[in-house]
Amino acid sequence: MSAMPRIEVCVGSQQLMFFNTSNDMPTCYPISTAEKGIGQQQGSGQTPLGKHYVRAKIGGEYPINAVFVGRRFTGEIYSPQLAKQYPNRDWILSRILWLCGCEKGVNRLGNVDTMRRYIYIHGTPDTEPMGVPYSHGCIRMRNQDLVELFNATPAGTLVLIKR
Predict the structure, then answer these.
(1) What is the spatial distance between Cα 119 and Cα 13, in angstroms, rounded to a whole number?
(2) 3-state secondary structure of 60
(3) CATH code of the domain containing 54
(4) Is residue 1 in some structural domain?
(5) What is the pLDDT of residue 2?
(6) Which active-site residues does the annotation give?
(7) Predicted local confidence at residue 21, as pLDDT
């Protein structure tokens, strides 16, 4: 029986590590977590810590750079022209791995519920920086990296977010 893949997000190093099996060397990706730091509270704009799992995978049937609002494909494909048209959008592109907390009172239920906070691993424009905290709470990735991760990650995959 093979081990379930797992994801570890290290906020300090701004890296996401994907372990395909328990004894596998991880595939490492640069990421961008919240500009406002780490925290669990609803409305904080911070990235939550702790044990999570991938609750839902969204967007696998759409092209790279597909634009999502409210977890729905808008019909748009991101481009510099679209960015100029909507300069204040928080771009959610290509794919969404929607996270759900596993720890009651830490990242699940009440004011600290990761799922109800709509915390995702998602794509972002290639012009956005990686390796520095810059998101609104989610974990941003390069689109090509995200598609690779999305394709290798089943729903239910454990996601550990640590300092």
Answers:
(1) 19
(2) coil
(3) 2.40.440.10
(4) no
(5) 59
(6) 122, 138
(7) 77
